Amino acid sequence: MFEDGAAPQIAADRIEREVSRAFLAVVERGQDLAAMMDAKRFAIVFAAYREGRLALQPFLDTSYPGLPALSRALTAPGETTQLQQAVTRAQPTVFSGNRELPAHHGQASAPALIGEETSIVLPVHSPCGRRGLIALSGPDMTVEEDRSMRAHLRAFALFRSACQLRAPEPRAGHGLSKRDIECLRLTADGLTSEQIAERLGLSVHTANQYVSAAAEKLDAVNRMHAVAKALRAGIIS
Amino acid sequence: MTEAFSTFRTDRIEASGLRELGALMRGFSRRIGADAYLLFEHRPQTGSVGLIACDWPFDMIAEIGSEGLDRLATAGIACAPGEAAAIVALDAEAIPADISAAARENGYSSLICQSLPVGDALFVAVYCAAGDGALDAEEAELAQMRAIYAISQRLKAKVEIASPLSVREKECLSWVAEGKTTEEVAMILGVSANTINAYIAKAIQKVAATNRAMAIATAIRAGMI
Questions:
Q1: Would you say residue B40 lies in a domain?
Q2: pLDDT per position as a tens digit, A138-162
């Protein structure tokens, strides 16, 4: 995107500052969510298949930019079976040393994740297909049914915001036109040039030109490369 | 449910679970102030639909059909969990014209459409109401979470729609996403081009894509590559 000279450094600094402001806003909302359940801390982890297994990756935690105890406990290798199960079910899982805690909504329970704390782990999805867990944890947590359900709803919203942090809005300067992006998006949806042309009322030649233009502007060698680059840069989602 | 519905009924939930979910949906529907409810499984990659519970008039559902429900689910009106429930007027532009016509013929004027992600599967709930201002958005938001829990508890064995790719398949797809051709990937991995094509074909099939570009997009979105 930026070739050389001093300008790119300045631009990069600015982007970084904007990014961390956005991150801090999400951290603040995470803390509010934790407070709602009388929890002390929260953590957001992403779930993705790696090497054929569901792996959990730390993302954001109460003490951003650090990743302390809760995130580490959630993503520690060997400790994740129950957490992996938490991703594939929809109900919260409560991790606690206290066996007296009531189970409702089919909530699963498991031994404490950290020390004497109670943690509630909420499986979350984003509309773009990302999955993860939001954990709320503290020594004086309450897991009363109605409140935990409301917290879960807010956790979904928080996760959506977290996903947007990972895929930032298209930044000005990528040079792609609206049509370029549209054709690229349809390519990512599996449409052929013929189908794109029909959908947008263009000739096949023109549709091809838009996709090629997009690939060239993204410095990609072909359309597969262009789709991957555009997705990773958040130009399409 | 009537006989004709069985043609696109979901196979994901046992008959007893279907009845229980029907009863729950009736309860949610009453609390929300809706006159009719519909709950179905949606597989957006293939556009197929599996009906779970519904008290819509038979004519209306027959007219809309599974293809219509797919269009309704992808019309961009479905609220994600934790998103304030949007009450959509049936004459809104986003609602496909044939669906809005069929619903209005039955006296409905507005609806709430919600997406219910459960593990690897996706379900959709639709509540219709006749009167203006009849639907309670706040109740709908709570019903959305309750429905997600209820479905999750009644799902048959976990079904992985986005079935994990093998190491080799992921490797191939990652190289293709880097712009490499089949021949180049074959050279990098030291196997024949035919083998690479077979891996990629398998990967395309596993992520329910129709071609390479779509497979790459799906795999990146799901965090597989």
A1: yes
A2: 888 877 888 899 999 999 999 999 8
Mean pLDDT across the stretch A167-174? Answer: 54
pLDDT value of residue B93: 87
Same domain? B91 vs B191: no
Q: Pick the residue from chain A with its C-alpha nearest to B212.
A: A224
Under an 8 A CB cutoff, do A48 and B224 touch? yes
Taking 60 as the threshold, does the pLDDT of residue A183 lie above it?
A: yes
- Domains for chain A: give ranges and CATH numbers: 8-166 (3.30.450.40), 178-232 (1.10.10.10)
Q: Are the beta carbons of A150 and B146 separated by less than 8 Å? A: no
Strand, coil or helix: A95? strand
Q: Are residues B83 and B134 in the same domain?
A: yes
Mutation site, A85, A107, A153, interface B, largest B CB count within 10 A: A153
Q: Are residues B130 and B20 in the same domain?
A: yes
pLDDT at B1: 40
Q: Which residue of A has its CA nearest to B208?
A: A190
ipTM of the complex: 0.71
Q: What is the CATH number of the domain that holds B196?
A: 1.10.10.10
The overall pTM is greater than 0.80: no
> Quick one: tokens of A200?
């947008």
Query: What does the pLDDT average to over A103-131?
Result: 77
Whole-number Å distance between alpha carbons of A168 and A186? 20
